[in-house]
Amino acid sequence: MYDIAVVGGGMAGAGFACALAREKVSIALIEERQAPGDNPSK
């Protein structure tokens, strides 16, 4: 069970998840790519 679900692991989603983690909030980070922030166009 999570307090918050963050959908999207880009710069904004990952940053938001990190900020929440500092506040001791339980987070589910949902990302469609293999790694948060991954850019397959490189």
Characterization of this structure:
The chain has one domain. It is built from 1 helix and 2 strands. The radius of gyration is 11 Å and the shape is elongated. The mean pLDDT is 85. Helix content is 29%, strand content 19%. The chain has 42 residues and is an alpha+beta fold. Helix 1 links the parallel strand 1 and strand 2. It has a two-stranded parallel ribbon with strand order 1-2.
Give the strand tally.
2
Separation of the first and last Cα atoms = 35 Å
Q: What is the alpha-carbon Rg in Å? A: 11 Å
Task: Write down the overall geometry.
Answer: elongated
In percent, how helical is the residue content? 25-40%
Low-confidence stretches: none
- Can you list the strand order of the major beta sheet? 1-2
Number of domains: 1
Report the order of strands and helices: EHE
Bin the strand percentage: 15-25%
Tell me the structural class. alpha+beta
Count every helix, treating DSSP H or I runs of 4 or more residues as helices: 1
Instruction: Give the biggest beta sheet.
Output: 2 strands, parallel
Average pLDDT, rounded to a whole number, is 85
